[in-house]
Design goal:
Structural class: alpha/beta
CATH architecture of the largest domain: 3-Layer(aba) Sandwich
Order of helices and strands: EHEHEHHEEEHEHHEEEEEEEEEE
CATH topology of the largest domain: Rossmann fold
CATH class of the largest domain: Alpha Beta
CATH superfamily of the largest domain: HUPs
Length: 362
């Protein structure tokens, strides 16, 4: 096949490229230029120059063409603007999911079709830790065997059309396997550390980013149980439910329990994690199911699980559509999660397969 490979300069995408080349495919590497030189220059240096240096070195070694695509405008419109709007509304955004959905596996498809009219790319590949499996006519995401690196959570908003065109060459591997392959291929970046930011915004200090766009506005820190004012903060947008860092009060640890965006009030508690305050139910909306149907038939006993955030933790769950609220469902988990916040994505699984996702409404 003729494959467009999204190359970041990291080890994972570089190994993915070499694996495809080894399998006999024709590959062209694409480095997406999404750093925002003007808009985010105040945040300091982004390591894009180092990323691009490694991407070039990997391609030169493999004798693979490298194309640099400018997608700054698209990234700002689809990821940065979304992040600002969600935070301003008091919700918890996930820019990583939006970047995958709208940029890497969305507008990138359209851009290479437009910019390279004489070239037909059969697939787009990346270095994500995820797998794609087709069951009859439906494409599903399948978890990586490396539960720590598994990235299906960040891909759960993709459409059938997108899944049908994507390859994840390292999705069946563990990180240790990928590192060994990097040594085998003697990649220029074989000893490079993993990036801490999966999405471009993750490479910056998030609070500095928010400060630039939303500024500061003083508001009260209120003890949830007593209503007593304990201090002040500089804006509700700097806090998310369950957060303990950044509260800067003695006598804690303190946790964010609730936000009132209308009055710019943050409610905190130091007994947030006591058993009587456990949270095991929440509602979701804005569904994206790979097979087009809600997972109503699944339950605790039938392998339904849910991730509330990226990581290893999967709760067993039940899914109950709400009759009085169309396109909403109540989720119950077999545990307690005090970090449930509106705007977060809930991603559902049946054993190793990802079924799709919804957005936490409350």
């Amino acid at each position: 096949m003729n494959i467009a490979v999204l190359l970041s300069g990291g080890v994972d995408s570089s190994v993915a490229l070499r694996l495809l080349q080894e399998q006999g495919h024709t590959v062209t590497a694409f480095y997406l230029k999404i750093w925002l030189e003007d808009e985010l220059a105040f945040l300091g240096e982004c390591p894009w120059e180092e990323d691009l240096k490694y991407a070039r070195a990997v391609c030169e070694q493999a004798k693979v063409p490298l194309e640099i695509l400018s997608m700054q405008k698209e990234y700002f419109e689809k990821v940065v603007s979304y992040t600002i709007a969600e935070v301003k509304a008091g919700r918890t955004p996930n820019p990583d999911i939006m970047c995958n959905n709208h940029v890497k596996f969305g507008l990138f498809f359209e851009k290479i079709q437009h910019d390279y009219p004489n070239t037909i790319f059969d697939k787009v590949a990346s270095g994500h830790y995820a797998q794609i499996e087709q069951k009859e006519d439906i494409f599903f995401l399948k978890r990586s065997p490396d539960s720590i690196k598994d990235q299906t959570y960040f891909l759960a908003r993709l459409s059938q059309n997108q899944l049908s065109r994507i390859l994840f060459p390292i999705g069946h591997l563990y990180k240790t396997d990928v590192r060994e392959l990097a040594q085998k291929y003697d990649l220029p970046n074989k000893n490079r550390k993993d990036s801490q930011g999966i999405c471009f915004l993750g490479k910056f200090k998030y609070n500095e980013f928010l400060k630039h766009y939303l500024g500061e506005k003083k508001g009260p820190l209120i003890e949830f149980e007593t209503g007593k004012k304990l201090g002040t903060h500089t804006g509700f947008w700097y806090f998310t439910i369950g957060q303990r860092s950044g509260i800067m009060l003695s006598g804690g640890p303190w946790f964010v329990v609730k936000k009132d965006t209308d009055t710019n009030t943050i409610f905190i508690s130091k007994t947030y994690y006591e058993p009587e305050k456990s949270r095991d139910t929440f509602t979701i909306t804005d569904f994206n199911w790979f097979d087009g149907t809600n997972p109503v038939a699944h339950s605790f006993d039938h392998g339904l699980g849910v991730k509330i955030r990226h990581g290893e933790k999967i709760y067993r769950a039940t899914f109950e559509p709400l009759k009085d609220r169309p396109a909403h469902a109540k989720i119950q988990i077999d545990g307690s999660d005090q970090g449930l916040a509106a705007g977060q994505f809930a991603v559902f699984y049946e054993n190793q397969f990802c079924l799709g996702s919804g957005v936490i409404a409350g």
